[in-house]
Amino acid sequence: xxxxxxxxxxxxxxxxxxxxxxxxxxxxxxxxxxxxxxxxxxxxxxxxxxxxxxxxxxxxxxxxxxxxxxxxxxxxxxxxxxxxxxxxxxxxxxxxxxxxxxxxxx
Length: 106
What we know:
Blueprint: H1 2-53, H2 58-64, H3 68-97
């Protein structure tokens, strides 16, 4: 019983102590969305235009296209957006659990 109360107290301390840093980190990650989203939108627009010109669905066009530049840009920008979505989840889980494993610190 005492161990449980101690754990709750420790979690509360971690939540309170690291909160400002987490807010700053999440705000920095949010600022990355326009920086990464704009090139993704442009690449998608270009790929959709090419697919429409060839009367194909976007997925089919990307998988069959010999244009590796569009593929590379599309996948790289998509991965960047995925990272911007997953990173705040890791920060939040670290705050909630007190474990550094969630944000890749360990």
